[in-house]
Amino acid sequence: MMNMPMAMATLSPTQGQNARGMVGFHDMGGGQVMVHARLTGLAPNAEHGFHVHEKGDCSAPDASSAGGHFNPSGQPHGPQDAAHHMGDMPNLRTDANGNADVRIMLQGVSVGSGAGDIVGRAVVVHAQPDDYRSQPAGNSGARIACGVIARR
């Protein structure tokens, strides 16, 4: 089996929040990346917006330093089955304890090469669910966790 590129992000809570965890990105080739997120400290039985943001900078207390959604192709914000930012991902769904363990497949992004390269960008979890309609970012509320994506 080929050794495909991989990256990881360790998410830390923003000021006053408790969300944290790990997100792995496994480049499957052909513009597909498998994302595996394991997070804790989220609202129980809830959905949270989940995006790759353009800047790999989580230094601001509210993670505003991560900028907007990763969107090198200039698409509108939206769900995976329509025009969308490369950084748009499905909402995270939590269990009764506020934990999420999800696997999703992203199209059009890569780990370590090309215009869709997510390495050096940030992963952000939001307080509210993404509505997949509101522009430019889905009205998903405060940024509650942030981590920089680094090649492994």
Automatic annotation (TrEMBL):
Its EC number is 1.15.1.1. Its cofactor is Zn(2+); Cu cation. The keyword Zinc applies. It is an enzyme of class 1 (oxidoreductase). It holds the Pfam family Sod_Cu. One of its GO terms (molecular function) is copper ion binding. It catalyses: 2 superoxide + 2 H(+) = H2O2 + O2. Keywords: Copper, Metal-binding, Oxidoreductase, Zinc. InterPro entries: SOD-like_Cu/Zn_dom_sf, SOD_Cu/Zn_/chaperone, SOD_Cu/Zn_BS, SOD_Cu_Zn_dom. Residues 20-149 form the Superoxide dismutase copper/zinc binding domain. Binds 1 zinc ion per subunit. Binds 1 copper ion per subunit. Residues 55-95 are annotated as: Disordered. Destroys radicals which are normally produced within the cells and which are toxic to biological systems. Belongs to the Cu-Zn superoxide dismutase family. This is Superoxide dismutase [Cu-Zn].
